[in-house]
Design goal:
CATH class: Alpha Beta
CATH architecture: 3-Layer(aba) Sandwich
CATH topology: Rossmann fold
Order of helices and strands: HEEHEHEEHEEHEHEE
Largest sheet: 4 strands, mixed
Oligomer: single chain
Length: about 210
């Protein structure tokens, strides 16, 4: 089982419940799931495949939660760099992340998600299963941007046994583990950041072998 499947199940059972709220935006579980489906389809149409690594440089927001969930739905894994939390940190650019998966060949490009992540989705259908529990969901880097921890879906799913408050705050740490714990448990995630993100921004995709 994968993390996004647990969240899809929540959306199917309690679609009207608020999944994430903050900075003037509130998305229900149904809306979060549908928008993430749209992001996943957009990423897959642009070439994202299972085992590809996507670097996301955005502030914490409903939009960035949509993007991260969309990456998982597309079978990818992510590095999340919170632009607000890590302001002033000299993060290397995406190609430096090659060592996390495959160092002998790197192809790096940018996919624009502005048109899909921050607006209602046209289709509500979930995507076919493209991830297994053993697949990596996120990569947590150290302060220099080098890979530190590879976190599979199964590890995040195991966190479901830990108690989560009905209203939980997303702290913005790199793996977004607190975000997934809350969403898998059906809680409402709150986001507090200084400025609302104007658009969904871009995602850099490092293409690797599956």
């Amino acid at each position: 089982m994968a993390v996004h499947r647990a969240i899809e199940a929540r959306a199917a059972l309690h679609g009207d419940a608020i999944a994430i709220s903050g900075n003037g935006v509130a998305l229900s579980y149904r809306e979060l799931n549908q928008r993430a489906n749209a992001v996943a389809r957009h990423l897959m149409a642009a070439g994202l495949r299972r085992g590809h690594l996507a670097t996301v440089r955005m502030s914490r927001s409903a939009e960035s939660a949509v993007v991260l969930l969309g990456i998982l739905k597309a079978g990818g894994m992510f590095v999340f760099i919170d632009e607000e939390h890590d302001a002033g940190v000299a993060w290397p650019r995406g190609v430096s992340l090659a060592e996390t998966v495959r160092a002998d060949e790197v192809r790096y490009r940018t996919i624009d998600l502005t048109a899909v992540a921050d607006r209602p989705a046209a289709s509500s259908a979930n995507l076919p299963i493209v991830s297994r529990g053993s697949d990596i969901a996120c990569v947590i880097p150290d302060r220099d941007g080098a890979p530190l921890v590879l976190v599979p879906h199964s590890t995040i799913l195991a966190l479901k046994d830990k108690p989560v408050p009905r209203v939980a705050e997303w702290s913005g740490e790199a793996g977004a583990l607190d975000l997934w714990m809350a969403l898998m448990d059906g809680a409402t995630v709150t986001v507090r950041s200084r400025d609302r993100v104007a658009s969904a921004g871009q995602v850099g995709v490092l293409e690797t072998a599956a």
